[in-house]
Design a protein that fits this description.
The chain is mainly alpha-helical. It is built from 9 helices and no strands. The chain has one domain (11-213). The longest helix is centred in the N-terminal third of the chain and has 32 residues, at 36-67. The N and C termini lie far apart (38 Å).
């Protein structure tokens, strides 16, 4: 039922490895700016991202154990056959959401971009398209983490929370696939909205509090 784009056996591990490469770009950007504010912002961002990557990796272990696979399609499939993982793993989902807030440098963990302290952080010396590239990468990372949250805990684009055997005729398969893609996108939008909701409601932590939470 799911179109298997990028269907590696260990595509979850591949995505985690590729997403962690962003640390190098941020550090080199701050270091090459020849500005103490940019360097401090990049050091904060790198230490924050590395610290919370550990918690994200540990949180994923129960999901791998329940699904028995490192394949994202298999994780979605096992939730369609049983129940969404948000219910048996609700405390873990909350910890995962807090970790992806810190991983993407969003409020209340936006210390690398603390305007009152660092004049905008690691990108203070950049302008034009290079300045926009940092924000495009940051918001793309938010969409990636929201997508992973939906896959891990909300069953991807599935309709039902608990598996219900329904006879599906061949002529309805294309329509069902389109509906699943729409629901998948809708779930991602809801999780992304939570990023904005948290930003509007919670104050920023101090950097020592941030590392202590990690």
């Amino acid at each position: 039922m799911y179109t298997k784009f990028f269907d590696l056996n260990n595509n979850l591990l591949f995505i985690l490895v590729i997403s962690s490469l962003g640390v190098y770009g941020i550090f080199l950007a701050g270091w090459s700016s020849n500005s103490k504010y940019a360097l401090l912002g990049s050091l904060r961002s790198v230490s924050q991202m590395i610290s919370y990557e550990v918690s994200i990796s540990l949180i994923i272990i129960p999901i791998i154990i329940l699904s028995g696979s490192l394949n994202l399609n298999d994780i979605i499939l096992i939730q369609n056959q049983t129940i969404w993982f948000i219910f048996p793993l609700f405390p873990i989902s909350i910890i995962f959401f807090i970790s992806i807030l810190a991983e993407t440098n969003r409020a209340p963990f936006d210390l690398p971009e603390a305007e009152a302290e660092l004049v905008a952080g690691y990108n203070v010396e950049y302008s034009a398209i290079t300045f926009a590239a940092f924000f495009l990468g940051e918001y793309a990372n938010i969409l990636l983490m929201s997508t992973l949250f939906v896959i891990f805990f909300f069953g991807g684009g599935s309709f039902e929370i608990i598996n219900i055997d329904i006879i599906i005729y061949y002529k309805y398969i294309i329509l069902l696939s389109l509906c699943q893609n729409f629901i998948f996108a809708l779930k991602i939008i809801i999780v992304t909205f939570l990023f904005i909701f948290v930003r509007a409601n919670l104050p920023r932590f101090r950097f020592d509090q941030l590392m202590y939470i990690g």
